[in-house]
């Protein structure tokens, strides 16, 4: 444990001790009864989406509430799985086992409402912001910092809320509410394992709370240790695009793939032996020589997490309360990766290791002799909240709070090649002297142990994020109209957000054989003020049991941008007791985050489709045929693999995104079916000045479909090809405010609570229909359609998503059957053949609980009950499927014991 970590833990422990002392000093001999405290709570509460206290939770917009009981009934013990299963989630949200495709956040779990992007979903903890998390200069919250054991309720507002909460609440808000009034002792332990005997999950939680008439203190410790589930045990190899059984793999081969120009001027591609033995070569054949990297990867990667949390409050007077939150989480996650690959180096005809007698360009040589790389992350996240709240005369409430959060992370990749040293080993003029060994890289088994000791190093990057804010709010009733009291809330906020990332020195110098990256460092400051008004217009009138109009406005002044004002108007019309209409119109905005503003150039192997692959088989009159020919792409050229190394970078001249959202909904509680509630909500979101980074696939498609290579994306600043092989060896993506996005759809919900056969039953059905989602990268571009498509690194945007949960319970036992539905979809870029269309997938999960004693509960569950396999996706990420959408682990079971004492 580092000195810094010890120092922060000591600080957290000291503050916790002070809070414990403050509460215990005033404690009675017996703790307060939790049920009594709950009964004394105010009837009116603050609901996510408004600062005004209300009795009607459905009055502020479409809010999905996940109660503690509902969460426990699913058996889910990590935040991202719970949130990503919501029908309102789409695209890619990141998860604790994600590998290289999560930019600057490997292993970071995130949430993506509506599929609009993780940075357009605002995540709150107890109504306050949380510092971004990951391994440095990140753009979203690391959900792994919040253990499920402390969660009392999660409220998901599926509506723009910048007028209430400021920037980033474009798609909606996730407000995680902790059980700050917990009383007693609860200890829980869980063990889970997959059907294949791997992926073991160990989870232990301990929560303790004490209360009296002056205050409450809750402390929690949570430990999680998830073991890996190897990919090859589930998906033996990557499959060829046109085959259900034939293995394919990476064109970065173990023996080395090379090209030369023969005496006739023809391009010849060969591959050296992939197995140890005398150097030999043969014409390159993907079926024979491609590298099966599935043997290196995991379907589910391991993670370890240790969390400490403390929440407390102390009544200083009858009207003033001191409250505080302290949290610390240490996350350690790892992902294995295939051995390092050296690309595009020359071996002269007379080089001592060259047996061909030809000048060779070695396109790819995977150094399997070094062994696989391991990606390792360690992230420490701290959060401190301290403040006061209270009441004033005439039902006015106020609060003021200081909120500080910081996370620091390191990520390391083992067995990375030092390119300077590599070049030394193939230079016959210097190798063999001065301790520099000579390397023979043509054919497996020819690299000496001296070279293998000389080449590699462990590459370590560091980074972090920090947030500091001060908020103050006051709310109450201004005056009374004939229809009721006018609610009012106002407040101010000051906030600073900063992020930094320091790549390994060898990476910055371009010496590391890894994706290039430059340091990132930046900071933004905001000063904001808001006001909110709830005006009752009618009460107990004909066709208007209640009619209320809500208004909210927020002024935001950022140090790097022009001031921005956002507003929201909402109508809540209770026509009769059983039927309500509601609607909102809101504007929202998102400021560019630190990596978008200050990020230097970085590289990544991104899933990309080259339209020139197989161009010579197309119609000679087509633009693609003519343009690929004009660019000098060789006849018979085929893209090798499904990724292209792409440059990405920030832009300090970016402006905030702007958005407007419309929701119109209805709530119906039919009088002839007691306990049934049905909701329907239409949503329409439009984003302008969207910060876009046109994908490589889009840029190449726009270029080669244009007349005579006339599109700006055909320029050398956007992409270039190798003049010999035709391979795209430079592809750039620059962020800009040129985009527009439009998303429309409908959410359906049904909750039915009923008794039957002396059992308490609950049926919860949530369905989301995505009618339209289009992105326009720049003026004049064809819309890029996401609705109904899956894969290509974007994640899943099926038209339909749904969850069904049915729970039945008696005095001592309960059982829950849940179903997750992912609708059918088409591949983003492949229109026919294998993997071009994915049928709907349904995952079934079951859990049963039994009270062994009044204090001890046993839970047993099975996830993916019918062991549903992931469908084939043509433009897959890993495992021949879209790992951002589908499950690869397979059937898994678990057992959990919970001891509760009050």
Account of the protein in words:
Helices cover 10% and strands 47% of the residues. The strands form seven sheets. The chain has a 22-stranded antiparallel beta barrel. Residues 1-42 and 99-104 have low confidence and may be disordered. The protein is built from twelve helices and 45 strands. The chain has a single domain, classed as TonB-dependent receptor, beta-barrel domain (Maltoporin, Chain A). A hairpin with a 4-residue loop joins strand 43 (841-851) and strand 44 (856-863). It is mainly beta and 902 residues long. The protein is globular. The chain starts with a helix and ends with a strand.
Strands, count: 45
- By helix and strand content, what is the structural category? mainly beta
CATH architecture classification: Beta Barrel
Strand content: over 45%
**Cα distance, first to last residue?**
35 Å
At the fold tier of CATH, the topology name is Maltoporin, Chain A
The helix fraction, in percent, is under 10%
Instruction: Based on Cα principal axes, name the global outline.
Output: globular
Kindly provide the radius of gyration, computed on alpha-carbon positions and rounded to a whole number of angstroms: 29 Å
Question: Stretches where pLDDT falls below 50 for ≥5 residues?
Answer: 1-42, 99-104
Q: Give the CATH class.
A: Mainly Beta
Number of helices: 12
Largest sheet: 22 strands, antiparallel, barrel
Q: Mean pLDDT, rounded to whole units?
A: 89
User: Total domains, how many?
Assistant: 1
Q: Could you state the CATH homologous superfamily? A: TonB-dependent receptor, beta-barrel domain
């Amino acid at each position: 444990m580092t000195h810094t970590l010890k120092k922060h833990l000591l600080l957290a422990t000291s503050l916790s001790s002070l809070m414990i002392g403050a509460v215990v000093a005033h404690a009675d001999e017996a703790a307060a009864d939790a049920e009594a405290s709950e009964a004394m709570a105010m009837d009116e509460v603050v609901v996510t989406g408004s600062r005004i206290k209300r009795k009607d939770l459905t009055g502020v917009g479409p809010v999905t509430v996940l109660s503690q009981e509902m969460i426990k009934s699913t058996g889910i013990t990590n935040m991202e799985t719970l949130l990503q299963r919501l029908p309102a989630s789409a695209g890619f949200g990141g998860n604790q086992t994600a590998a290289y495709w999560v930019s600057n956040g490997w292993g970071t779990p995130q949430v993506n409402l509506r599929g609009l992007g993780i940075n357009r979903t605002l995540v709150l903890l107890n109504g306050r912001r949380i510092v971004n998390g990951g391994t440095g200069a990140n753009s979203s919250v690391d959900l792994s910092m919040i253990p499920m054991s402390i969660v009392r309720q999660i409220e998901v507002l599926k509506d723009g809320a910048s007028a209430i909460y400021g920037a980033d609440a474009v798609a909606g808000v996730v407000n995680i509410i902790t059980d700050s009034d917990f009383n007693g002792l609860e200890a829980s332990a869980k063990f889970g394992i997959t059907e294949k005997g791997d992926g073991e999950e160990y989870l232990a939680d301990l929560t303790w709370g004490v209360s009296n008439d002056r205050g409450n203190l809750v402390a929690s410790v949570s430990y999680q240790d998830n073991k890996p589930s190897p990919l090859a045990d589930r998906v033996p190899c990557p499959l060829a695009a046109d085959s259900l059984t034939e293995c394919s793999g990476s064109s970065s081969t173990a023996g080395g793939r090379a090209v030369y120009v023969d005496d006739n001027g023809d391009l010849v591609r060969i591959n050296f032996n992939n197995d140890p033995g005398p150097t030999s070569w043969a014409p390159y054949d993907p079926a024979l020589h491609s590298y099966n990297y599935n043997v290196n990867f995991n379907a589910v990667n391991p993670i370890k997490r240790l969390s400490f949390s403390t929440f407390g409050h102390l009544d200083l007077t009858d009207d003033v309360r001191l409250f505080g939150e302290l949290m610390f989480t240490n996350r350690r996650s790892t992902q294995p990766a295939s051995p390092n690959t050296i690309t595009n180096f020359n071996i002269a005809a007379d080089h001592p290791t060259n047996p061909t007698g030809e000048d060779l360009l070695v396109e790819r040589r995977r150094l399997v002799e070094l062994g696989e790389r391991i990606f390792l992350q360690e992230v420490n996240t701290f959060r401190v909240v301290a403040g006061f709240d209270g009441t004033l005369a005439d039902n006015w409430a106020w609060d003021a709070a200081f909120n500080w959060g910081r996370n620091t992370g390191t990520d390391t990749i083992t067995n990375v090649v030092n390119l300077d040293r590599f070049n030394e080993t193939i230079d016959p003029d210097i190798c063999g002297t001065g301790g520099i060994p000579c390397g023979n890289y043509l054919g497996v088994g020819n690299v000496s142990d001296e070279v293998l000791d000389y080449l590699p190093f462990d590459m370590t990057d560091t980074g972090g994020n920090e947030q500091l804010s001060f908020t103050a709010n006051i709310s109450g009733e201004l005056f009374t109209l004939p229809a009721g009291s006018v609610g009012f809330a106002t407040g101010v906020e000051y906030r600073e957000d900063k992020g930094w990332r320091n790549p390994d020195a060898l990476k910055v110098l371009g010496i590391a054989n890894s994706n290039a990256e430059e340091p990132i460092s930046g900071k933004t400051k905001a000063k904001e003020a808001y006001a909110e008004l709830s005006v009752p217009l009618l009460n107990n009138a004909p066709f208007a049991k209640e009619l209320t109009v809500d208004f909210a406005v927020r002024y935001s002044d950022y140090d790097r941008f022009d001031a921005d004002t956002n507003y929201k108007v909402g109508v809540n019309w209770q026509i009769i007791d059983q039927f309500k209409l509601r609607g909102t119109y809101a504007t929202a905005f998102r400021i560019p985050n630190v990596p978008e503003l200050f990020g230097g150039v970085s590289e990544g192997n991104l899933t990309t489709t080259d339209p020139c692959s197989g161009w010579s088989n197309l119609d000679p009159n087509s633009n693609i045929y003519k343009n690929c020919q004009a660019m000098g792409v060789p006849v018979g050229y085929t893209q090798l693999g499904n990724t292209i190394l792409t440059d990405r970078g920030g832009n300090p001249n970016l402006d905030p995104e702007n958005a407007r959202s419309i929701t119109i909904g209805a709530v119906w509680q039919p009088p002839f079916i007691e306990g049934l509630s049905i909701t329907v909500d239409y949503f329409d979101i439009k984003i302008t000045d969207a910060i876009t980074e046109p994908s490589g696939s889009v840029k190449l498609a726009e270029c080669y479909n244009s007349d005579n290579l006339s599109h700006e994306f055909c320029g050398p600043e956007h992409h270039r090809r190798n003049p010999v092989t035709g391979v795209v060896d430079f592809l750039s993506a620059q962020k800009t405010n040129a985009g527009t996005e439009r998303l429309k759809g409908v959410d359906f919900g049904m909750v039915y609570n009923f008794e039957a056969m002396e059992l308490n039953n609950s049926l919860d059905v949530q369905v989301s229909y995505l009618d339209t989602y289009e992105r326009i990268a720049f003026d004049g571009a064809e819309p890029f359609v996401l609705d109904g498509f899956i894969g290509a690194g974007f994640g899943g945007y099926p038209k339909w998503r749904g969850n069904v949960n049915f729970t039945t319970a008696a005095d001592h036992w309960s059982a829950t059957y849940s179903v997750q539905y992912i609708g059918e979809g088409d591949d983003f870029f492949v229109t026919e053949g294998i993997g071009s269309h994915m049928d709907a997938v349904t995952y079934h999960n079951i859990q049963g609980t039994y009270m062994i004693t009044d204090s001890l509960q046993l839970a047993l569950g099975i996830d993916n009950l019918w062991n549903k396999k992931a469908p084939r996706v043509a433009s897959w990420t890993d495992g021949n499927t879209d790992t951002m959408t589908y499950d690869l682990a397979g059937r898994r079971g678990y057992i959990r014991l919970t001891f509760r004492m009050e």
